[in-house]
Design a protein that fits this description.
single chain; Arc Repressor Mutant, subunit A; Alpha-Beta Plaits; 3 domains; 4-stranded antiparallel sheet; 11 strands
Amino acid sequence: MSGHSKWSTIKHKKAAQDAKRGKMFTRVIREITISAREGGGDPEGNPRLRTAIAEAKAANMPADNITRAIKRGTGEMEGMTLEEVSYEGYGPAGVAVLVQTVTDNKNRTLPEIRHIFSKNGGNLAESNAVAWMFQKKGYIVVDSSAIAEDALLEMVLEAGADDLRQDGGNHEIITSPDNFQSVREALQRKGVPIEAAEIAMLPQNTVRAVGDAARKVLRLIDALEDHDDVQHVWANFDIDDREMETSS
């Protein structure tokens, strides 16, 4: 919807800020470690690891850091024991929120995440209270000025994409998780600049948040993303762009 901002269309704008404060490296290293532990250290046979490595390279992470993270995941190097834990909750205006964490102590992480929700007008919920509202998809953002819609549509459909959407100044490419990497690589081969690319939990429907509720939603999302253990935050809000400006 033109003039409005959803989670998906503002998410990639945070990338530069995350990289600046060093959080992106930490998040990607943890993702590489978990991916290697769960699916093995060979990226050719581990799509999740392959995606994490591609993200690390896009962030200009040194190759040695990537190698060490893989070895910690496979057990070839010692490191802290990390566990992947997801939390679900509601924010102001009934916005559904999914939080994915990687932690070495979930007994510490749980109360801290609960506190962030309650401090910012939300609350934690039981497992699967909101997860059913989201679908796991590949999500790629391309600036609309970089390539014409018709040309991009033909390219990504041929590579296996499910859909191409328009939202403001962005092309949003939606794929199945299995086809995400092939679509991403097709864009890279053609020299199409990618603004953002990840396996995401995309909401099936959105909730409008206005005024003070909108500002509180954005503060909640920012607070969650600032937590050291948080890898990803997904939400189903729809907020007017003017609210984004007044909250920044």
